[in-house]
């Protein structure tokens, strides 16, 4: 079994990935990640590669069709291609490996609506939901960072708005939601635990919606402008939340599952 990289190697890998994602997106980033050994990492150290790559995609605002690779590999199929993915409200989409955007919400993403695809295996759903969860956590942290910096810089009534209790509460509630979502992702089994992965994706989606709502309020009018980065993270989060089940849908699905079981299984050792 491949060894987990030591902290120094992991730090260097994260720096390399962040630099790459800051310079490219879409098909170019897909190619760059392949050159960095993304598919090898996915095979050898998925527990490290998936959280790292997808969290950085969220933090940098870049995008690449690598969700396909995670779902295909977990489903026992070769990565590097595309596969239909369930979307919210019973619809299906494909995330193409080119740069032809069609999404009505996020014009940067090459996501195309398609007819219903083959159901994904439980392992593929679990792995895909965890990957999306880390992406949502990264996007949430990016929104929080923007709002926090604005709170430190913006002055009203002779005071930085970060000193106002209402602002502090919104930032604190956002951080609590993000940390909670990250904890659920760390507790879930990357490979197999369907219910834990479902709940982790739901928590991450809810955290992103919380971050979008609170950070929009902290930023005020500037947060609504196309010139500011916040709107890009909000739109991206809406798409990611809908993929493989939205937070609302997954919470309802979890309720149905627990009622059928008749008990709540232990998902983490505290």
UniProtKB/TrEMBL annotation:
Acyl-CoA dehydrogenase/oxidase C-terminal domain segment(s): 123-253
Top-level taxon in the UniProt lineage: Bacteria
A Pfam family recorded for this sequence: Acyl-CoA_dh_1
GO MF: acyl-CoA dehydrogenase activity
Keywords, sorted A to Z: FAD, Flavoprotein, Oxidoreductase
Protein name: Acyl-CoA dehydrogenase
Organism: Mycobacterium conspicuum
